[in-house]
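Target chain:
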Amino acid sequence: MTTRRHFLMTLAGGFAVGRAVFAQAQKQEKGADDDLASARAAKVPNVSKAKKPLEVLLLGGTGFIGPHIVAHSIARGHAMTLFNRGKTHPELFPDLEKLRGDRDGKLDALKGRKWDAVVDTSGFVPRIVKMSADLLADEVKQYLFISSISVYPDDVKPGANESTAVQELKEPGSEEVRKHYGALKALCEKTVEQSMPGRATTIRPGLIVGPGDPTDRYTYWPARIDRGGEALAPGNGEDPVQYVDARDLAAFVVKAIEDGSMGVFNATGPEKTLSMKQMLESSRKAAAKPATLTWVPTKFLEEHKVAAWDDMPVWTGAEPGFSQIDCKKAIGKGLKFRSADETARDTLAWWKTLPEERRAKPRAGLSPEREKEILAAWKAKKA
């Protein structure tokens, strides 16, 4: 079955991909850019102002998680400066200061400037991360690096926490992000800490979901169930799942800066164990005429080459470790989660704003034809 590692390396629009993969995904989004940009730049309701406004630099900021961080920061009253190449949604946040350059050696726009903190959402290669971390070491008080739980080994056990050993790069010097994603992220974490000892914050999210996500990984489920009919559901419904709404992750990033929280934090959720059945029930609540669910055993799906994380997004299948990561440390520092019902409802509402041609070709999950084929085979076996 497709491993979770492969799944994370094929994510696009967030920060679990290398630049080439990200660029390809952005190209595929053509035709839906306005809708995505609108969702990403949405204002954050019911957020109070911070006691002390901060000057924050964001490296990146126009993909998936970046705009949520910007929006929450603005809502809290912080001043944001964006540093990027200006190629992805340059129309976003027209009132903000935007510095142009490139992470790989073109950092002149950052020289001679000071900020309270920098948030790095776009670091994948240690050599490149070191450039910005070294340059900013004397100019910022805190460097917050967005990493990933993919730094943990493929066979990570349930309950892994921030002290669990991370991957090592098996090909020293390699910068092949798709091949060594987790190991390179782990080295990026180390690089930041070396450049700014005691002033580095590393946040390791898992699957990031919610409005604006261009990957369709989680979105497959509310969209599929909203389509009605009979939907294939994997396993027996009791398998645990973990994900974090991009808006909740953004709020935690901003809080970590405001509080000056240093160290490493796993940031996936929710706070209490969520089963696959409970997650899909949230999608059913969001749909006007929801599909009925037919649960198909894991073994049967494996025999018919229906892969966890790829054909059946969010579901871990035979890899329970990555759906039971310990996040108590981050929760203790203020990581909060909205309800599964709210995430499903808002994601479906956003999905329906996209052009019909975009919605006709989901980027994750089983095709309708393949789903019918597997369901028919399962019924034949039971007959």
Summary: The first strand starts at residue 55 and ends at 59. The two ends are 26 Å apart (CA to CA).
